Amino acid sequence: MKRAFCGDCGSPLIAHPVPEVIGIHVASLDDPSEFAPEMHFFTSHAQPWDDMNSDLPKFEKLPPGE
Asked: In degrees to the nearest 10, what's the CA dihedral of 16, 55, 44, 5?
């Protein structure tokens, strides 16, 4: 897995686990309300209180590659 961090403060910015997937840490966005989730993954690690959108696809680990 590749990761990128802010050069000034060291905050995590992205995670790149496989070539088809780049994860952007929502806390690094100026206005996260501009983006909506398209799926839930690693649901096998979800907490019981996690209120996932029931209309979105869910994957226990990473979604299958195309």
From this structure: 20
Q: Strand pairing of 21-24 and 12-18?
A: antiparallel
Q: 53 is in which domain, residue-wise? A: 36-65
pLDDT tens-digit readout, 17-30: 878 778 888 888 89
Same domain, 42 and 61: yes
Query: Is the domain of 59 the same as that of 40?
Result: yes
The answer, yes or no, to whether residue 11 has pLDDT greater than 70, is yes
Q: Which of 10, 14, 21 has its CA nearest to residue 62?
A: 21
Give this prediction's pTM.
0.59
Q: What is the maximum alpha-carbon separation in the chain?
A: 38
Let me know whether 7 and 25 are in one domain. Answer: yes
